[in-house]
Prior knowledge:
Blueprint: H1 25-33, H2 53-63, H3 85-93, H4 113-123, H5 146-154, H6 174-188
Amino acid sequence: FANFHVTQGPWTGGFWDVPASSPFREEIAWLSATGVTTGYPDGSFQPTTEVTRETMAAFLYRLAGSPATTTTVRFTDVPATHRFAREISWLADQGITTGFTDGKFRPGEAVSRAAMAAFLHRYAGSPSTTAASSTFRDMPAGAPFSQEVGWAAQTGITTGFTDGSFRPGDAISRQAMAAFLYRFDALAG
């Protein structure tokens, strides 16, 4: 992970919709301080909004330090003029995504919790894992992304829910994404 580590810095700003009582305040503050997000123009973070695939690409690209890259049109639904074309192209260049079999990236589609684990696992270089694929009651061995979710649990990126589930098909919220990225970055430290 060393090539992708972002140094954690002090947070000097705030989002009006992230109160001091938010369980993800520290992680959201870190996401802002590192430049992974600037939030929305109205000063909000929108913590419960679903993370889309294009936003995930932007977050990971910025987490990597916004490296120089050549924008190559790789997906039929991401033209060179797309607002996140560079970030999505970089994601594909790094092998973090291959898109879908129909040649699309589906930039506006929500990222599931299982897909988030797969993106982060690939971002980390697809490390081998000894994690049990059945770490969570709803992630049986052989389920799509079960190894990646097991890796995310083994490394402490996710702990799942108190009922023992991971909820792999649920869309990931921006506040949960902040927590996952914060923990992921701590691994590289």
